[in-house]
Protein backbone atom coordinates (compact mmCIF):
# COMPACT_ATOMS: atom_id res chain seq x y z
CA UNK A 1 0.00 0.00 0.00
CA UNK A 2 2.83 2.35 0.87
CA UNK A 3 4.00 1.97 -2.75
CA UNK A 4 1.06 3.96 -4.08
CA UNK A 5 1.66 7.00 -1.93
CA UNK A 6 3.18 10.23 -3.22
CA UNK A 7 6.58 11.17 -1.80
CA UNK A 8 5.06 13.83 0.44
CA UNK A 9 2.49 11.38 1.81
CA UNK A 10 5.18 8.79 2.38
CA UNK A 11 7.33 11.26 4.33
CA UNK A 12 4.32 12.51 6.26
CA UNK A 13 3.38 8.95 7.27
CA UNK A 14 6.92 8.34 8.55
CA UNK A 15 7.06 11.57 10.54
CA UNK A 16 3.57 11.92 11.91
CA UNK A 17 2.25 8.38 12.06
CA UNK A 18 5.51 6.64 12.91
CA UNK A 19 4.56 4.19 10.18
CA UNK A 20 7.42 1.76 9.74
CA UNK A 21 6.04 0.30 6.49
CA UNK A 22 6.22 3.75 4.92
CA UNK A 23 9.79 4.15 6.14
CA UNK A 24 10.69 0.79 4.63
CA UNK A 25 9.14 1.87 1.32
CA UNK A 26 11.06 5.16 1.51
CA UNK A 27 14.38 3.41 2.22
CA UNK A 28 13.86 0.94 -0.63
CA UNK A 29 12.82 3.67 -3.05
CA UNK A 30 15.80 5.95 -2.40
CA UNK A 31 18.60 3.59 -1.36
CA UNK A 32 20.03 3.29 -4.85
CA UNK A 33 19.95 7.04 -5.39
CA UNK A 34 21.79 7.72 -2.14
CA UNK A 35 24.28 4.92 -2.75
CA UNK A 36 25.05 6.31 -6.20
CA UNK A 37 25.24 9.92 -4.96
CA UNK A 38 27.92 8.90 -2.46
CA UNK A 39 29.96 7.11 -5.13
CA UNK A 40 29.62 9.97 -7.58
CA UNK A 41 30.70 12.57 -5.03
CA UNK A 42 33.74 10.53 -3.98
CA UNK A 43 34.64 10.11 -7.66
CA UNK A 44 34.13 13.78 -8.51
CA UNK A 45 36.76 14.72 -5.93
CA UNK A 46 39.11 11.88 -6.90
CA UNK A 47 38.88 10.75 -3.32
CA UNK A 48 40.35 7.35 -2.59
CA UNK A 49 37.68 5.53 -0.65
CA UNK A 50 37.01 2.05 0.59
CA UNK A 51 33.82 0.05 0.67
CA UNK A 52 33.59 0.85 4.39
CA UNK A 53 33.61 4.59 3.62
CA UNK A 54 30.63 4.16 1.32
CA UNK A 55 28.75 1.97 3.80
CA UNK A 56 29.44 4.44 6.63
CA UNK A 57 28.15 7.30 4.52
CA UNK A 58 25.03 5.38 3.54
CA UNK A 59 24.23 4.64 7.19
CA UNK A 60 24.89 8.19 8.37
CA UNK A 61 22.69 9.71 5.68
CA UNK A 62 19.67 7.60 6.59
CA UNK A 63 20.34 8.19 10.26
CA UNK A 64 20.58 11.96 9.71
CA UNK A 65 17.14 11.92 8.07
CA UNK A 66 15.41 10.41 11.11
CA UNK A 67 17.50 11.34 14.14
CA UNK A 68 16.47 14.12 16.51
CA UNK A 69 12.82 13.45 15.82
CA UNK A 70 13.13 13.43 12.01
CA UNK A 71 14.90 16.78 12.06
CA UNK A 72 16.26 16.52 8.51
CA UNK A 73 13.28 14.79 6.93
CA UNK A 74 10.98 17.45 8.35
CA UNK A 75 12.82 20.10 6.37
CA UNK A 76 11.50 18.71 3.11
CA UNK A 77 8.47 20.54 1.84
CA UNK A 78 6.40 19.27 -1.02
CA UNK A 79 5.43 22.58 -2.53
CA UNK A 80 7.66 25.24 -4.06
CA UNK A 81 10.59 22.89 -3.94
CA UNK A 82 12.50 20.38 -5.98
CA UNK A 83 11.65 16.67 -6.06
CA UNK A 84 12.56 14.40 -3.16
CA UNK A 85 15.16 12.64 -5.30
CA UNK A 86 16.99 15.86 -6.22
CA UNK A 87 16.86 17.00 -2.60
CA UNK A 88 18.18 13.67 -1.30
CA UNK A 89 20.97 13.74 -3.84
CA UNK A 90 21.95 17.23 -2.62
CA UNK A 91 21.80 16.07 1.03
CA UNK A 92 23.95 13.03 0.22
CA UNK A 93 26.47 15.14 -1.70
CA UNK A 94 26.74 17.73 1.10
CA UNK A 95 27.23 15.05 3.75
CA UNK A 96 29.81 13.20 1.65
CA UNK A 97 31.76 16.44 1.04
CA UNK A 98 31.71 17.14 4.81
CA UNK A 99 32.94 13.61 5.47
CA UNK A 100 35.87 14.01 3.08
CA UNK A 101 36.78 17.37 4.63
CA UNK A 102 36.66 16.09 8.19
CA UNK A 103 38.13 12.70 7.65
CA UNK A 104 40.94 13.34 5.26
CA UNK A 105 41.72 16.96 5.96
CA UNK A 106 41.78 18.35 2.47
CA UNK A 107 39.84 18.19 -0.72
CA UNK A 108 40.99 18.06 -4.27
CA UNK A 109 39.00 21.02 -5.55
CA UNK A 110 39.25 22.64 -8.93
CA UNK A 111 42.75 23.63 -9.92
CA UNK A 112 41.26 26.52 -11.86
CA UNK A 113 42.70 27.78 -15.08
CA UNK A 114 43.84 31.28 -14.15
CA UNK A 115 42.33 32.68 -17.31
CA UNK A 116 45.24 31.18 -19.24
CA UNK A 117 43.13 29.67 -21.92
CA UNK A 118 41.49 32.91 -22.85
CA UNK A 119 44.86 34.46 -23.59
CA UNK A 120 45.65 31.62 -25.93
CA UNK A 121 42.41 32.29 -27.70
CA UNK A 122 43.31 35.94 -28.27
CA UNK A 123 46.25 35.53 -30.60
CA UNK A 124 46.42 39.07 -31.91
CA UNK A 125 46.55 41.09 -28.73
CA UNK A 126 49.67 43.00 -27.99
CA UNK A 127 49.90 41.17 -24.67
CA UNK A 128 50.49 37.77 -26.08
CA UNK A 129 54.22 37.97 -26.77
CA UNK A 130 55.22 39.52 -23.50
CA UNK A 131 52.65 37.73 -21.47
CA UNK A 132 54.98 37.05 -18.56
CA UNK A 133 56.15 40.63 -18.27
CA UNK A 134 52.94 42.52 -17.87
CA UNK A 135 50.95 39.87 -16.09
CA UNK A 136 49.58 42.21 -13.46
CA UNK A 137 48.44 44.87 -15.88
CA UNK A 138 46.98 42.16 -18.07
CA UNK A 139 44.90 40.58 -15.38
CA UNK A 140 43.65 44.03 -14.32
CA UNK A 141 42.55 44.74 -17.88
CA UNK A 142 41.01 41.33 -18.25
CA UNK A 143 39.08 41.78 -15.02
CA UNK A 144 37.66 45.04 -16.33
CA UNK A 145 36.71 43.43 -19.62
CA UNK A 146 34.90 40.63 -17.81
CA UNK A 147 32.99 43.12 -15.70
CA UNK A 148 31.73 44.70 -18.90
CA UNK A 149 30.07 41.43 -19.95
CA UNK A 150 26.41 40.69 -19.30
CA UNK A 151 25.51 38.62 -16.22
CA UNK A 152 24.93 35.44 -18.17
CA UNK A 153 28.14 35.89 -20.20
CA UNK A 154 30.12 36.33 -16.99
CA UNK A 155 28.80 33.00 -15.72
CA UNK A 156 29.54 31.29 -19.05
CA UNK A 157 33.03 32.82 -19.01
CA UNK A 158 33.63 31.59 -15.49
CA UNK A 159 32.65 28.02 -16.33
CA UNK A 160 34.53 27.84 -19.64
CA UNK A 161 37.72 29.64 -18.76
CA UNK A 162 38.07 29.57 -14.99
CA UNK A 163 36.66 26.16 -14.26
CA UNK A 164 37.67 24.56 -17.52
CA UNK A 165 34.23 23.17 -18.38
CA UNK A 166 33.46 22.00 -21.90
CA UNK A 167 30.68 23.92 -23.72
CA UNK A 168 28.46 20.86 -23.19
CA UNK A 169 29.09 20.85 -19.44
CA UNK A 170 28.54 24.60 -19.34
CA UNK A 171 25.20 24.25 -21.13
CA UNK A 172 24.12 21.46 -18.79
CA UNK A 173 25.07 23.49 -15.70
CA UNK A 174 23.25 26.63 -16.74
CA UNK A 175 20.35 24.74 -18.37
CA UNK A 176 21.00 26.41 -21.72
CA UNK A 177 21.04 24.90 -25.23
CA UNK A 178 24.61 23.98 -26.27
CA UNK A 179 24.25 26.10 -29.41
CA UNK A 180 23.78 29.20 -27.24
CA UNK A 181 26.94 28.42 -25.28
CA UNK A 182 28.95 28.05 -28.51
CA UNK A 183 27.68 31.31 -29.93
CA UNK A 184 28.15 33.14 -26.61
CA UNK A 185 31.67 31.71 -26.31
CA UNK A 186 32.57 33.27 -29.64
CA UNK A 187 30.93 36.58 -28.75
CA UNK A 188 32.59 36.71 -25.34
CA UNK A 189 36.05 36.40 -26.87
CA UNK A 190 35.21 39.06 -29.45
CA UNK A 191 33.94 41.40 -26.76
CA UNK A 192 36.97 40.94 -24.56
CA UNK A 193 39.30 41.42 -27.52
CA UNK A 194 37.57 44.66 -28.46
CA UNK A 195 37.51 45.88 -24.90
CA UNK A 196 41.19 45.19 -24.40
CA UNK A 197 42.17 46.68 -27.76
CA UNK A 198 40.41 49.89 -26.75
CA UNK A 199 42.41 50.19 -23.51
CA UNK B 1 32.45 39.68 -8.30
CA UNK B 2 31.03 42.09 -5.80
CA UNK B 3 29.14 40.96 -2.77
CA UNK B 4 25.44 41.44 -2.66
CA UNK B 5 23.07 41.34 0.26
CA UNK B 6 20.23 39.74 -1.69
CA UNK B 7 19.18 36.51 -0.07
CA UNK B 8 21.03 33.33 -0.87
CA UNK B 9 19.27 30.30 -2.26
CA UNK B 10 18.15 27.28 -0.27
CA UNK B 11 18.92 23.63 -1.05
CA UNK B 12 15.41 23.34 -2.46
CA UNK B 13 15.70 26.32 -4.79
CA UNK B 14 19.12 25.15 -6.00
CA UNK B 15 17.55 21.75 -6.59
CA UNK B 16 14.75 23.29 -8.63
CA UNK B 17 17.30 25.09 -10.84
CA UNK B 18 19.28 21.89 -11.34
CA UNK B 19 16.07 20.03 -12.23
CA UNK B 20 15.37 22.73 -14.82
CA UNK B 21 11.96 23.39 -13.32
CA UNK B 22 12.35 27.15 -12.80
CA UNK B 23 10.48 29.79 -14.77
CA UNK B 24 12.63 32.03 -17.04
CA UNK B 25 12.12 34.90 -14.56
CA UNK B 26 13.34 32.82 -11.63
CA UNK B 27 16.26 31.60 -13.71
CA UNK B 28 17.25 35.18 -14.42
CA UNK B 29 17.00 36.04 -10.72
CA UNK B 30 19.34 33.12 -10.03
CA UNK B 31 21.84 34.23 -12.66
CA UNK B 32 21.86 37.77 -11.29
CA UNK B 33 22.45 36.47 -7.79
CA UNK B 34 25.18 34.07 -8.95
CA UNK B 35 27.02 36.91 -10.67
CA UNK B 36 27.25 38.75 -7.37
CA UNK B 37 27.52 35.95 -4.79
CA UNK B 38 30.61 33.78 -5.06
CA UNK B 39 29.38 31.49 -2.31
CA UNK B 40 26.15 30.46 -4.06
CA UNK B 41 27.83 30.28 -7.43
CA UNK B 42 30.58 27.89 -6.38
CA UNK B 43 28.10 25.84 -4.34
CA UNK B 44 25.85 25.58 -7.37
CA UNK B 45 28.68 24.58 -9.70
CA UNK B 46 29.85 21.95 -7.20
CA UNK B 47 26.36 20.52 -6.81
CA UNK B 48 25.97 20.22 -10.55
CA UNK B 49 29.08 18.12 -10.63
CA UNK B 50 27.86 15.63 -8.05
CA UNK B 51 24.09 15.57 -8.35
CA UNK B 52 22.77 12.19 -9.42
CA UNK B 53 20.71 11.65 -12.55
CA UNK B 54 18.90 8.53 -13.76
CA UNK B 55 21.62 8.01 -16.36
CA UNK B 56 24.47 7.83 -13.89
CA UNK B 57 23.36 5.21 -11.43
CA UNK B 58 26.59 3.38 -12.12
CA UNK B 59 27.53 2.13 -8.70
CA UNK B 60 25.35 -0.95 -8.87
CA UNK B 61 22.95 -2.29 -6.30
CA UNK B 62 22.97 -1.50 -2.61
CA UNK B 63 23.94 -4.49 -0.44
CA UNK B 64 20.83 -6.02 1.10
CA UNK B 65 22.21 -5.94 4.66
CA UNK B 66 22.59 -2.15 4.46
CA UNK B 67 18.98 -1.67 3.39
CA UNK B 68 17.82 -3.87 6.26
CA UNK B 69 19.95 -1.87 8.68
CA UNK B 70 18.49 1.43 7.44
CA UNK B 71 14.95 0.07 7.83
CA UNK B 72 15.74 -1.00 11.41
CA UNK B 73 16.96 2.51 12.29
CA UNK B 74 13.37 3.68 12.42
CA UNK B 75 12.62 4.82 15.96
CA UNK B 76 9.97 2.47 17.31
CA UNK B 77 8.33 4.94 19.62
CA UNK B 78 8.31 7.95 17.34
CA UNK B 79 5.40 9.20 15.37
CA UNK B 80 3.37 9.91 18.45
CA UNK B 81 1.73 13.26 18.25
CA UNK B 82 2.83 16.00 20.60
CA UNK B 83 -0.79 16.30 21.55
CA UNK B 84 -4.03 14.46 20.83
CA UNK B 85 -7.28 16.33 21.53
CA UNK B 86 -10.90 15.31 21.37
CA UNK B 87 -13.63 17.81 20.57
CA UNK B 88 -16.53 16.75 22.79
CA UNK B 89 -19.96 18.20 23.51
CA UNK B 90 -19.02 20.95 25.94
CA UNK B 91 -15.23 21.00 26.03
CA UNK B 92 -11.95 20.10 24.44
CA UNK B 93 -10.38 17.06 26.11
CA UNK B 94 -6.74 16.07 26.15
CA UNK B 95 -6.35 12.44 25.07
CA UNK B 96 -2.57 12.47 25.07
CA UNK B 97 0.05 15.11 25.72
CA UNK B 98 3.83 14.79 25.39
CA UNK B 99 5.86 15.61 28.51
CA UNK B 100 7.18 18.88 27.08
CA UNK B 101 3.73 20.29 26.37
CA UNK B 102 1.82 22.23 28.98
CA UNK B 103 -1.93 21.92 28.44
CA UNK B 104 -4.59 23.63 30.51
CA UNK B 105 -8.18 24.75 30.32
CA UNK B 106 -8.70 28.42 31.09
CA UNK B 107 -10.57 29.04 34.34
CA UNK B 108 -14.33 29.19 34.14
CA UNK B 109 -15.65 32.75 33.85
CA UNK B 110 -19.01 34.11 34.83
CA UNK B 111 -21.22 35.26 31.98
CA UNK B 112 -21.60 39.06 31.90
CA UNK B 113 -25.38 39.22 31.90
CA UNK B 114 -26.50 35.91 33.29
CA UNK B 115 -23.82 35.71 35.94
CA UNK B 116 -23.76 32.02 35.13
CA UNK B 117 -20.43 30.28 35.38
CA UNK B 118 -19.29 29.42 31.85
CA UNK B 119 -16.54 26.98 31.18
CA UNK B 120 -14.76 28.10 28.00
CA UNK B 121 -14.82 25.37 25.38
CA UNK B 122 -11.17 25.67 24.70
CA UNK B 123 -7.75 24.51 25.70
CA UNK B 124 -4.39 26.25 25.84
CA UNK B 125 -1.15 24.48 24.92
CA UNK B 126 2.36 25.75 25.45
CA UNK B 127 5.65 24.46 24.20
CA UNK B 128 9.08 26.06 24.43
CA UNK B 129 11.70 25.83 21.72
CA UNK B 130 15.29 27.03 21.58
CA UNK B 131 14.50 30.63 20.66
CA UNK B 132 10.76 30.94 20.99
CA UNK B 133 7.76 29.94 23.08
CA UNK B 134 4.65 28.87 21.23
CA UNK B 135 1.13 28.97 22.58
CA UNK B 136 -1.88 27.43 20.86
CA UNK B 137 -5.36 28.45 22.00
CA UNK B 138 -7.71 25.84 20.61
CA UNK B 139 -11.34 26.86 20.65
CA UNK B 140 -14.09 24.44 19.77
CA UNK B 141 -16.57 25.67 17.16
CA UNK B 142 -18.51 22.42 16.98
CA UNK B 143 -17.65 18.76 17.35
CA UNK B 144 -15.83 18.67 14.02
CA UNK B 145 -14.30 22.11 13.78
CA UNK B 146 -12.13 24.38 15.89
CA UNK B 147 -10.19 27.64 15.61
CA UNK B 148 -6.54 27.80 16.61
CA UNK B 149 -4.78 30.95 17.70
CA UNK B 150 -1.01 30.59 17.34
CA UNK B 151 0.99 33.03 19.49
CA UNK B 152 4.74 33.28 19.47
CA UNK B 153 6.72 34.94 22.21
CA UNK B 154 10.29 35.05 23.39
CA UNK B 155 12.13 35.84 26.58
CA UNK B 156 15.19 36.66 24.52
CA UNK B 157 15.73 39.29 21.86
CA UNK B 158 12.41 40.47 20.41
CA UNK B 159 13.99 40.40 16.97
CA UNK B 160 13.72 36.61 17.17
CA UNK B 161 10.01 36.78 16.49
CA UNK B 162 10.34 39.05 13.49
CA UNK B 163 9.84 37.53 10.07
CA UNK B 164 8.35 34.26 11.35
CA UNK B 165 5.79 32.29 9.39
CA UNK B 166 3.24 29.81 10.58
CA UNK B 167 2.41 26.89 8.36
CA UNK B 168 -0.38 24.41 8.84
CA UNK B 169 0.46 21.06 7.28
CA UNK B 170 -1.84 18.10 6.93
CA UNK B 171 -0.95 14.78 5.30
CA UNK B 172 2.10 16.34 3.70
CA UNK B 173 0.12 19.24 2.23
CA UNK B 174 0.56 22.85 3.20
CA UNK B 175 -2.91 24.20 3.96
CA UNK B 176 -1.98 27.62 5.28
CA UNK B 177 1.19 29.65 5.31
CA UNK B 178 0.94 33.06 6.94
CA UNK B 179 3.34 35.56 8.52
CA UNK B 180 2.98 35.96 12.30
CA UNK B 181 1.98 39.61 12.38
CA UNK B 182 2.50 41.09 15.83
CA UNK B 183 3.31 37.70 17.35
CA UNK B 184 0.05 35.90 16.64
CA UNK B 185 -2.18 34.56 13.93
CA UNK B 186 -5.49 32.70 13.88
CA UNK B 187 -6.12 29.55 11.89
CA UNK B 188 -9.85 29.26 11.37
CA UNK B 189 -12.24 26.38 10.72
CA UNK B 190 -9.82 23.57 11.30
CA UNK B 191 -11.52 20.21 10.85
CA UNK B 192 -10.70 17.13 12.88
CA UNK B 193 -7.60 15.42 11.48
CA UNK B 194 -3.84 15.21 11.78
CA UNK B 195 -1.79 18.35 11.58
CA UNK B 196 1.62 19.82 12.04
CA UNK B 197 1.98 23.47 12.93
CA UNK B 198 5.39 24.67 11.80
CA UNK B 199 6.95 27.97 12.74
CA UNK B 200 9.81 28.90 10.49
CA UNK B 201 12.20 31.69 9.74
CA UNK B 202 13.18 31.75 6.08
CA UNK B 203 13.75 28.05 5.45
CA UNK B 204 14.61 27.04 8.94
CA UNK B 205 12.05 25.47 11.25
CA UNK B 206 12.26 27.09 14.68
CA UNK B 207 9.33 25.29 16.25
CA UNK B 208 6.89 22.57 15.39
CA UNK B 209 3.94 20.97 17.14
CA UNK B 210 2.17 17.90 15.79
CA UNK B 211 -1.46 17.72 16.66
CA UNK B 212 -4.29 15.26 16.25
CA UNK B 213 -7.87 16.42 16.57
CA UNK B 214 -10.48 13.73 17.10
How many helix segments of chain A?
9
How far apart the termini of chain A lie comes to 70 Å
Main β sheet profile of chain A: none
Number of strands of chain A: 0
**SSE arrangement of chain A, N to C:** HHHHHHHHH
Q: Give the strand content of chain A.
A: under 5%
Rg of chain B (CA only):
23 Å
Shape of chain B: extended
Fraction of helical residues of chain A: 55-70%
Mean pLDDT of chain A, to the nearest integer, reads 81
Summed up, what is this model?
Chain A has 199 residues and is mostly helical. Chain A has helices at 7-17, 20-44, 51-70, 84-104, 116-120, 135-147, 151-162, 167-174, 178-197. Chain A is elongated.
Task: Characterize the structure shown.
The complex is a heterodimer of chains A (199) and B (214). Chain A is elongated, with a radius of gyration of 23 Å. Chain A folds into 2 domains: 2-104, Rna Polymerase Sigma Factor, Chain: A (Orthogonal Bundle), CATH 1.10.1740; 116-197, Up-down Bundle (Butyryl-CoA Dehydrogenase, subunit A, domain 3), CATH 1.20.140.160. Chain A has 199 residues and is mainly α. Chain A has helices spanning 7-17, 20-44, 51-70, 84-104, 116-120, 135-147, 151-162, 167-174, 178-197. In chain A, helix 2 crosses helix 3, helix 2 (20-44) crosses helix 4 (84-104) and helix 7 crosses helix 9. Helices cover 68% and strands 0% of the residues of chain A. Chain B has 2 domains: 11-60, no CATH class; 83-213, no CATH class. In chain B, strand 4 and strand 5 form a beta hairpin. Chain B is 21% helix and 39% strand. In chain B, the strands form 3 sheets. In chain B, strands 2-1-13-12-9-10 form a 6-stranded mixed beta sheet, with no helix packed on it. Chain B is extended, with a radius of gyration of 23 Å. Chain B has helices spanning 11-19, 24-36, 38-50, 64-72, and strands spanning 83-87, 92-97, 102-104, 109-110, 117-118, 122-128, 133-140, 145-153, 164-170, 173-179, 184-191, 193-201, 204-213. In chain B, helix 2 (24-36) crosses helix 3. The longest helix of chain B has 13 residues, at 24-36. Chain B is of the alpha+beta class. Chain B has 4 helices and 13 strands. Classes of the chains: A mainly alpha (199), B alpha+beta (214). The interface between A and B is large, with 66 and 60 residues.
Amino acid sequence: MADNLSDSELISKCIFDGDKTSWEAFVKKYSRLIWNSIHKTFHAYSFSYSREDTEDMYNSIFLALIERDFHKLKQYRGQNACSVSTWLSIVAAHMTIDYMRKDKGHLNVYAGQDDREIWDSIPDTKYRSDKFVETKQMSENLKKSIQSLSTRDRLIYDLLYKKGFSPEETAETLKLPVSIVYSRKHRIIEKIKKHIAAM
Amino acid sequence: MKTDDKKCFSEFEMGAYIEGSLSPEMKEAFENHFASCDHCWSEFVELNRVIIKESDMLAGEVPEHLIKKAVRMFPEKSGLFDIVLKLVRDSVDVVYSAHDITAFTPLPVSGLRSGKIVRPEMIVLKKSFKDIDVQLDIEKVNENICNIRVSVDTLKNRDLIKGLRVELISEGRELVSVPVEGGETILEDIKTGRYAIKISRKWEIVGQISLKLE
